[in-house]
Amino acid sequence: MPIGWPAAAAGTVQAAAGEPGLEAFGGDPWWITLIKALVIFVFLMVCVLMMIMADRKVMGRMQQRHGPNRFGPLGLLQSLADGVKLSLKEDVIPRNVDRLVYIAAPMIAAVPAFIAFSIIPVGPEVSMFGVTTPLQLTDLPIAALLVLATAAVGVYGIVLGGWASQSPYALLGGLRASAQVISYEIAMGLSFVAVFMFSGTLTTSGIVEAQQSLWFAVLLLPSFLIYLVTMIGETNRLPFDLAEGEGEIVGGFMTEYGSMKFTMFFLAEYVNMVTVAAVSVTFFLGGWLAPPPITAFWPGANEGWWPVLWWLLKFMAVMFLFIWVRGSVPRIRYDQLMQLGWKLLIPVQLVWITAVAVLKLMVNEGAPLGATAGAGAGFAVVSIAAFAGYARSARRARAAEEARRAEEARRIHADPAAGGFPVPPQSAPHYGSSVPAEPPRNPAPAPAGEKRGEREEVTGA
């Protein structure tokens, strides 16, 4: 290691810490930091309870049925009752599991989701008990990467839980979750790249400030739409809940878990939903900034505690999207899940990022407007041609699959035993028809008046 490495590293750290926009962090009294951390924890727990209740209520209305309506007024305490029930259930550990990993896996899945929320800004600087502080626990020069890091670590809990359970269903669920998170995390990370290009920073507070004039959801619409898909896949929610498909692998990685350990996995899933929804608000929907129509006639809409209200409204809209998709879209097959991630989302993101980088560079270098517009039109033409080719290939694949299924149906119609298990003949006794029965191996003496060897007739009546 070079002799001057410690000094160089220290200088790099100081330069990163001195990045513009981070001066307001790191100087709060310890009790202000403690209050912020406690508020974040309480907010996440309340969001989990309310989201479970909203899941049931909203989907109940979408499916023309009543949701919970017994515990508490309008069923509002149903989630709390379920939590109490799970905490009081007997904690059974299967005999042959790896006990240490089996117990640690739910905690590994839940803790990273709480950490990721610490860099989410929900408002500007306000006065809290006489101390001026930003409504954000902390911010980092690489705060945006913390979201991806915690998402990557959280999947270890799912994989280890499936492996430690010593169950084939749980192991399959863990393997599915690992492959799903890898494929969708790549597309999610690529959707952030365009945001970094336009904001010029990796700090979450800086990304929010960069959207003062126009939200990135409008300016970078393809990145926003792809992020919405990947955030649902990242949280194992319908239609991407292949890691816990009840009709295929019972309960997936949670099959052998019960009581509080099952609660921890359930908590991790819903806290992850809250975190990715908050990230979408921060990166694409302007964070705590008020919508443009409000700021047009209310100059103070982005001051004081009002921005918390704008953030909450955006956050609730994204959380409602989770429920809407779950109640509307059926579960897809696993091969469709992988094809969507690797063959569609990632290639589209790579082309889109290339186009954004080229156009951004041309604008920064002062290229003529005609040249910039021509480059944008060229990327648009290439993208449309690629989509047309992909759609044509998909139609051909669907036609070939339909032809194969029609041929298989024709063969089965001609021969019921073709391509499957043998089918009993329709003249068997249990179908109600009469067939001659086999003679007994040790026939009894025939009664008087009957000939030996004469076969009886058996009916299905």
TrEMBL record:
Lineage top rank: taxon: Bacteria
A Pfam family annotated for this UniProt entry: NADHdh
Segments crossing the lipid bilayer: 31-54, 100-120, 140-165, 186-208, 214-232, 270-289, 309-329, 341-363, 369-391
GO terms under biological process: aerobic respiration
Keyword Manganese: no
Biased composition (Pro residues): 437-446
A cellular component term, taken from the record's GO annotations: plasma membrane
Compositionally biased tracts (Basic and acidic residues): 405-414, 449-461
Region described as Disordered: spans on this chain: 405-461
EC main group: translocase
GO molecular function: NADH dehydrogenase activity; oxidoreductase activity, acting on NAD(P)H, quinone or similar compound as acceptor; quinone binding
Function: NDH-1 shuttles electrons from NADH, via FMN and iron-sulfur (Fe-S) centers, to quinones in the respiratory chain. The immediate electron acceptor for the enzyme in this species is believed to be ubiquinone. Couples the redox reaction to proton translocation (for every two electrons transferred, four hydrogen ions are translocated across the cytoplasmic membrane), and thus conserves the redox energy in a proton gradient. This subunit may bind ubiquinone.
Subunit structure: NDH-1 is composed of 14 different subunits. Subunits NuoA, H, J, K, L, M, N constitute the membrane sector of the complex.
PANTHER family per UniProt: NADH DEHYDROGENASE SUBUNIT 1 (PTHR11432), NADH-UBIQUINONE OXIDOREDUCTASE CHAIN 1 (PTHR11432:SF3)
Protein name, UniProt field: NADH-quinone oxidoreductase subunit H
Gene: nuoH
